Amino acid sequence: MARDPQRPGISTTGRRAGTFCLVLTVALAAQATRVQFFNAETYNDNPANQRTTIQRYAQPRGNLLVGADPVTGSTATGGRYDYKRTYTEGPQYAAVTGFSSQIFGNTQLEGTEDALLTGTDNRLAGWALWDAISRKQSPGGDVYTTISKAAQQAAVQGLGNQKGAVAAIEPGTGRILALASTPSYDPGSFAGSAAADQEAWNKLQADSNQPMLNRALRQTYPPGSTFKVVTAAAALANGVVTDINAPTGAPYPYVLPGTTTELVNDTSSCDQPNLDLDTAMTLSCNSVLGYLGVQTGLDKMVSMAQKFGFNDARLDIPVRAARSNFDTSMNQSQVALSSIGQFDTAATPLVMAMVAAGVANNGTVMYPQLVDKLTKSDGSTIQLMKPHPYQQAMSPAVAGQVQQLMTDVVQNGTGRNARIAGATVGGKTGTAQHGVDNSGVPYAWFISWARPTGSTDVPPVAVAVVIADSEATDVTGGGLAAPIAKSVMQAVLGGNG
Amino acid sequence: MATPSAVATARREPAPRRPGSGRNTELVLVLGAVAIAVFGYVEVGVNIDGQAPPDAAGYGAALGALALFTHGVIRWKARYADPLLLPIAVLLNGVGLVVIYRLDRATGRNHAAPTQLLWSTLGVALCVAVVLLLRDHKILQRYAYLGALGALVLLVLPIFFPPVYGSRIWVTVGPLSFQPGEFAKILLAVFFAAYLAVHRDSLALTGRRIWRWELPRGRVIGPVLLIWVAFVGVLVLETDLGTSLLFFGLFVVMLYVATARSGWIAIGLLLASAAAVTVGWLSPHVHSRVQDWLHPLGSIAAGQGANQIAQSLFAFAWGGLLGEGLGNGHSILIGFAAKSDFILATIGEELGLVGLLAVFLLYALLVGRGIRTGIALTDPFGRLLAIGLAALIAIQVFVVAGGVLDLIPLTGLTLPFIAQGGSSVVTNWIIVALLVRMSDIARRPPLPAREA
Lengths: 497, 452
Known about the structure:
The complex is a heterodimer of chains A (497) and B (452).
Chain A: H1 10-38, H2 40-45, H3 51-56, E1 64-66, E2 69-70, E3 72-76, E4 83-87, H4 90-97, E5 100-101, E6 105-106, H5 108-112, H6 114-118, H7 128-134, E7 142-145, H8 149-159, E8 163-170, E9 175-182, H9 195-206, H10 228-237, H11 277-283, H12 286-296, H13 298-307, H14 332-339, H15 349-360, E10 364-366, E11 371-375, E12 381-384, E13 389-392, H16 396-412, E14 423-432, E15 443-452, E16 461-469, H17 477-496
Parallel strand pairs in A: 1-7
Antiparallel strand pairs in A: 1-2, 3-4, 5-6, 7-11, 8-9, 8-16, 10-13, 11-12, 14-15, 15-16
Chain B: H1 2-11, H2 23-49, H3 56-77, H4 85-107, H5 112-133, H6 139-142, H7 144-156, E1 171-173, E2 176-178, H8 180-205, E3 209-210, E4 213-214, H9 218-237, H10 241-259, H11 262-282, H12 284-294, H13 298-301, H14 308-319, H15 343-376, H16 380-404, H17 422-443, H18 448-451
Antiparallel strand pairs in B: 1-2, 3-4
Helix pairs in contact in B: 2-3, 2-4, 3-4, 3-5, 4-5, 4-15, 4-17, 5-17, 7-8, 7-9, 8-10, 8-16, 8-17, 9-10, 10-11, 10-16, 11-12, 14-15, 15-16, 15-17, 16-17
């Protein structure tokens, strides 16, 4: 056979074939590194990748606690998602907990504290680096809420079948003691991913009563006469009124500036000029407070409202509250209407509770907080709630004057239904007309605070109650809302005594 | 004449220095391979049930006995064989059994791993038989044409059976099913090696010259092309593209190794592209595979959820560097082919990039040892056969791993030794047996008489 000296032999071509095979292997290794190392996060984060979800439900979720008792739990499902959320008293605490659903995600505290509850929060890791390498999943941590079981129970029972909400705050610290919204729902009914869960969700979504709306945090209502507390505070703080028992110079009838419309009162007792502030608050006189609002002026009214939490779009407790509104650009007649809680003024029950709490805390509004502490699953504390001031709304002296006004409302005026034996109670009623030609059932409001008689300490509780829709025939803040506020305050005072 | 011979000498393997037979190395490595497989089996149990599987000891004993028996036979009948071949095969097969067992646990059907163990035993038995019965690989050269005919029959056979998952590559007899294409690949390698060993010079040197190409004579290249076209035709009819690609790659590599004409590679690539375009144009099946390759996440964007490739990539990515640990992954989300074509994704997810690269390294070592055996042999047939068998493994690993890693379009092949599939594991054990036999001859020290 002819032999070509230029032609390499099999030893050479075989080696080249070997090199080719090596190149194939290197290509595979490079692609594997690309997929598993450089691009891993993109693939892990893809919404079609079920692994994140599987991992998240692979272990029991941490719990939300009221006092020392969990109001949540976890149960093994036996499905692809090992554990699902359970709730011990779902409807009662739904406005606090929100829901954690395998299909519909997480809301409220379940949402804001999700990383801690699922165990992905870095603070849970014992040895962060090692845990990251070994892929050890930390057990979920626990969230202790500031909620008082007794206050929450009183709020939910008080609301009963009516459509409404309660927010209660400890004035000295900003701790939220109760957060209730009715009608409520059971977040456990759709925690899983079965057809029944989907069905329960659809039913809740279709319910015209909006049971899943958190009325205490996420819904604003015209505050009506309860806003007069803010107006009175602004008038006193800015020297428009110095003595609550001295004539204010308010005219009667009070014609809204620039119009021919009279600002009418609900009681004829208010229909006289030159009333003093204390009487005007006790009787809830629109003409006087509207006049005082205008005298105080737009800027100072806005400033005072904002110190209580109005116009704050980022009020996180840590669940974000809806923005309460007090317009910053108005003519004088609009200022007058806004000063009695009408026109565009709208507030969440939370912010109205902050108003009562700020007055009770000698003028300092504390930042409202729903979380007391965060712990690891073994109980060791990761983070402890520290009270911090939101705003200094007024001086302690002015606060004392407003406290006196509110005490008189309960003692002698429209808020008598909130009187508690053995306690000093300050409050303010509100009955807000709304709807076309005020045809809707009015919103019944009551804000208040209470302390044991004889005590000079900061009151342990401030409450805001709103009833948005009731079967009752006589809808007034004093009639409907005040008794609920009373029972919530009693629950807190009783707990303290 | 001095210069070429000097070059030839320099390129030759280092002069035999009477190496140790390597049998003790092999023994240690085999025991290590068994230990790793048993450890993996225990890990699956611990991660899924919180305790070692009750039959772990039995499993280890069975695997150990098989491996040691084979080692004994090699020690007895092929004592100079490459000591890495058997340990690598045992380790890959052991890892495969563990991963299949792990996937069994996720599917609730508990019989794939025992079945695979049965097939592995058969494979090992055939491996032992080949080592015992085949004294010299050159005997195979005599039966090359018969083998080619047999391979053709094997490949045509599945046409008479119903298609499985869109491909007519299975022969089903009662409860048993096997892929004849797997067996055919050895026969084909033997035929190519035998034919090219005889005709390599005429293929390389003779023929008409057209422009710059020297074409071989028709009667020389004719039979090869004819057989090759027949194979590819059948395979296209069966829509088994993975096997077509494998045979084609084998053909081109062996042709180049035999003739050293890089022109063959150019022609091969040209033919391959033409075939790929034609098939892609004719077959919507292939077209969609290419689309999936180019846009693995496209089905998600289209709102149809993750397809197999996307699921496979998710599994690999989730494994990251070190993996989730055996039993802790979710590669079962990939779906029906999780134990066969996509088994690599489970390795990637549960053993991580580190484990995956280790597996690639094992294959590379196995292939490297095969090529080395080929280079060390002296007869052209043996050289071509060993290199061809090594290339078979390399190409098969690349085609299937590249497919599931989205490096190339997915064509569907089994991962040698690891994937579920009886015909595959048996075939690969026979390949190992042939390499053991050939390496024994290649590494056998010259007879003392000659040395003197």
